[in-house]
Amino acid sequence: MKNKKNGFTLVEILVALGIGTMMMMAIYSAVNSAQKSSSGIEGKVIAQQDARSALELMAMEIRMASYNPNLTPNIWLSTANCFSAAANQNYRGIQEATASSLTIEMDIDDSSSVGDHENEIIRYNYDTGNQYITRSTNCGTAQPFLGALNASEATKTVLVVNNEAAIPVFRYYDGSGAEISAPVTTSIPDIRRVEITLVLDAFYSNPSTGGRKRIIYTTSVIPRNHIPTYSY
Length: 232
Description:
Elements: H1 10-63, E1 94-97, E2 101-105, E3 121-127, E4 132-137, E5 143-146, E6 158-160, H2 162-165, E7 170-173, E8 179-180, E9 193-202, E10 214-221
Antiparallel strand pairs: 1-2, 2-3, 3-4, 4-5, 6-9, 7-8, 7-9, 9-10
């Protein structure tokens, strides 16, 4: 009587290896796709959080433009030459109003003087070439605000691309709702509302699509202290 030996033929082994390989490739593809999707979502969320935080801070500070609780006359300063020239007192707490930059002033410590306390003079400026916004206080050095100054900095999560979208960062309106053409100079006292628009591309490309996610945030701010209720 012959002994019957159980085993696999070479063909069966090759078929099993092939099926196993295909299963492993399918699992790897699914895991890799999930990781890419997760990375893309994370980058989008971080960009949105930074954009919202920046917009909220800008709105809060711009709302305080011309704050002068003691109604002290002639406290407004010129920031065009870092205080070396007299300000236009009719412009009050908005001494600069262009499509890409805005300078606001306020007497937040009730000292009847502007510039003697930090954050009383704030300037936002959009650098179209480097696609970032800076914030400077009391005519000091401009600091990264939204989008870092250097692409290698870890804080860079977005590119400010208003220039690519042909949308100004700042737009200005009078009391009737009519837009005041920027740059605003002699009509600065007429400003009643400032519209802020941020057009942003996530700095890191979406791993799944290879493209950058674009988001647009906008808000309107009423500088409540800029209304010339009193003469000072």
